[in-house]
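Structure first, sequence second, as always.
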């Protein structure tokens, strides 16, 4: 198909930034689904705190999914947030089925966040020259996810 959306980036810059953004979209969709799964299935004495903190994470992941997807469209790259694509390409760690104890949920969410953040930091490096505007967005997303990662880690001690 002809490219309907044009960009000032050259082909290589567009490819690098597009890959970084599309990978971020996939990871964040998965993270939002994992956090909702945990929100519904958490049990234990810390239920309420964890249940509410999970929705804070869902809100952030959904908002950033949209930011990354619309940055991709802004540079002429078609984002792919379909379930099959997310299942195949996500770099999040996943989450077990069934009820989960609060402590196990905190551990699982902390390590999922760490996995997503590691991939974001690689994309920050990758986009530095190719597209600083995309890099700037990824830095903002990473800063907020690292803040949330701290808050989840603090619950482990
Ligand atoms: Fe809810």
């Amino acid at each position: 198909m002809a490219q309907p959306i044009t960009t000032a980036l050259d082909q290589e810059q567009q490819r690098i930034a597009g890959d970084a953004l599309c990978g971020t979209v996939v990871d964040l969709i998965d993270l939002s689904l994992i956090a909702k799964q945990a929100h519904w299935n958490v049990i234990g004495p810390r239920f309420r705190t964890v249940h509410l903190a999970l929705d804070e994470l869902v809100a952030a992941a959904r908002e950033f999914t949209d930011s990354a997807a619309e940055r991709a469209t802004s540079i002429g790259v078609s984002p792919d947030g379909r379930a099959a694509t997310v299942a195949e390409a996500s770099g999040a760690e996943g989450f077990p089925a069934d009820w989960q104890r609060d402590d196990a949920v905190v551990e699982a969410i902390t390590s999922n966040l760490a996995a997503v953040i590691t991939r974001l930091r690689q994309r920050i490096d990758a986009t530095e020259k190719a597209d600083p505007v995309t890099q700037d967005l990824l830095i903002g997303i990473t800063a907020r996810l690292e803040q949330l990662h701290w808050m989840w880690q603090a619950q482990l001690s």
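Margin note: Strands lie at 42-43, 100-101.
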